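Subject: Phosphatase structure
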Amino acid sequence: MQTAPSRDELREHLIRTRIAGDIATSRENNLDHYRSLAARDPHYMFGLTLDGDWTYRDILALMAKSAGVSPDPEHRYGQDTIDADRTLDALDAMAGRIAAVLRRDAPRIIVATGHPTGLLTTHLALVRLARERGATLLSPAEQRSFMGKGLGRRRRIRYLDDVAMLDDGGALVHTHDPAPMRAMLEELGGERPDLVIADHGWAGAAGEAGVETVGFADSNDPGLFVGEAEGKVAVTVPLDDNVLPRYYVPMNDYLVARVQSGL
């Protein structure tokens, strides 16, 4: 069995692989997305409704606090950061939430990702753990279709080892769309899951519906952090959500070990 890294070892790994620390996402991209969320662009709201005013400056201040980006509004170009200790703290908090659910009798869990080229490996590790602990992995609305952007292609919910994603008929796709999670919860009716583990619109829509939700988000995806600040999302882990999948393996091992220690 592979040994999980210590907190210090994982911090070094996160920074070296740029999951945290000096990330690939540019400062310009981060600030553009904060402005877009402040303008209530649905693409960046991830299915959440926001109760507060959440101006651009408010969002920047929250992202500095929650993710560790530069708080300086005059820093407009170049390098931005995610604080690795904030990532580690959020991983610990997420592990606590997952462990609490897995301690229940026959918990029901949905796992989903809008980043199949990156975070799929993390979601698969959590599915395996949940299954080993006797959880039921739900797969509602499989093959339900939605009209995607570009070329009029329809996208469908597809499950890979109980992780929900969208495909366009030939590939798994990146998506912010909250509609698939809404459809999944609608199909379940009153039999809601005990927990959703997700990202992007999958997480936002679940949190908006009142389902306990933990998720992952990049520094240019402020929606889930605002959702967490408003109490709709239980935990949001800040990280670069699209590095090489193998770079996430030590993080996955750490997260699984932390969950197991809480069982």
